[in-house]
């Protein structure tokens, strides 16, 4: 589930944006939790982490542009989209590395295009940084670099993690997880297994050796493509 923040003082504008996010989730089978701040200063003081921020520019007190500058002081990665009726200031968004901007009133067409772009950015960020895994006891955040590989067993996803004796088992779909990890170091080597290429020490004839000495096997149908992708990942040589 992606955590999305709306920073907007106008109730109607905030509600409309939340509705568009909800519609996008329904149409793209994505889950979002939406939080709202009515002013920028309360958001900055909270220093809460989000996966995506929609920020109005014309806010009471601290402007959205000022808040974005302060946000970037401690968060350089989170995608930021300005939602504003001040189109003349939107170009300044590049100063704070904004992903994009939308001019009010926000239409579904313009929102969905920006949201497609934001989803790609969020997936890259998730894939290269950390995984949020929902377990029975709550959400566990696992650094991507610590995951050796992920496979399927009896409809469970099984996460094999560095320096942990027992793998982590949770309910889930490998196909959906692969989509979320798109753009990262994970490679599908069989119908039921994703491997972290950063932990692959060698790949020959479908035999995949990991940094911890473990040996996995690519399926006959995927071993050629897997080798090509792994070669490209290493920069063209193995």
Automatic annotation (TrEMBL):
Keywords attached to this entry: DNA-binding, Phosphoprotein
InterPro entries according to UniProt: CheY-like_superfamily, LytR-like, LytTR_DNA-bd_dom, Sig_transdc_resp-reg_receiver
Stretches assigned to the Response regulatory domain: 3-119
Species the sequence originates in: Paratractidigestivibacter faecalis
One MF annotation (Gene Ontology) recorded for this entry: DNA binding
Positions where 4-aspartylphosphate occurs in the chain: 56
Entries under Pfam families matching the protein: LytTR, Response_reg
Coiled-coil regions listed: none
Annotated HTH LytTR-type domain residues: 131-232
The protein, known as: LytTR family DNA-binding domain-containing protein
